[in-house]
Write a structure and sequence with these properties.
This protein is 18% helix and 45% strand. With 95 residues, the chain is of the alpha+beta class. It has one domain. Strand 4 and strand 5 form a beta hairpin.
Length: 95
């Protein structure tokens, strides 16, 4: 379940936050860790939704440089996708 923090971000009852911080950056925060994800915004791929495109390699390390295990990466990607869907945003992950 999500609750709106403001017009740009949501918090999950699972303990993570997804927040748009600038036009091309969305942050994923969990506990004291953060990933600043560089995104490309595509307004044309869907008529009723904004779509953001993120490179899969963006989920390899936290901003502090600590490597993220593959299992944790999969969890973060799913959390990120769920949070964006709650906000009405479609996610495309490119290799």
């Amino acid at each position: 379940m999500f609750k709106w923090l403001n017009k740009q971000g949501v918090e999950s009852n699972k303990g993570f936050i997804v927040q748009t911080v600038s036009r091309f950056v969305i942050e994923y925060r969990q506990n004291s860790k953060k990933i600043s994800l560089q995104v490309e915004v595509d307004y044309e791929s869907s008529v009723d939704k904004v779509t953001v495109i993120v490179n899969k390699s963006s989920f390899i390390k936290w901003d502090d440089g600590e490597t993220i295990s593959q299992g944790k990466q999969a969890e973060i990607i799913q959390n990120f996708k769920d949070a964006l869907e709650f906000q009405g945003i479609e996610l495309i992950i490119e290799d």
